[in-house]
Design brief:
Elements (H helix, E strand, L loop, with lengths): L13 E3 L2 E3 L2 H8 L3 H10 L14 H9 L4
Helix pairs in contact: 1-2
């Protein structure tokens, strides 16, 4: 059995609006590209992704997410 530390996604999947999501920064890191390049590629290829593939966090959601990280 592998340890949770061996999983690079451990702690990177959050539940927001009842959906399991990953942040763009974590997905970009996973693919080895800069975050702005990842977002650029998604925007340029929007027709290749499901409608609910991405969404913008509200200020409240962002604050809640930030509060989950230790300083």
């Amino acid at each position: 059995m592998s340890s949770p530390d061996a999983d690079p996604l451990a702690g990177r999947i959050f539940t927001i609006r009842g959906q399991r999501v990953m942040l763009d920064t974590d997905l970009a890191r996973l693919y080895g590209v800069a975050t702005f390049r990842f977002n650029e590629a998604v925007k340029r290829n929007a027709d290749k992704f499901p409608e609910d593939f991405r969404f913008q966090l509200t200020r409240e959601e962002q604050a809640s997410l930030i509060s989950q990280f230790p300083a």
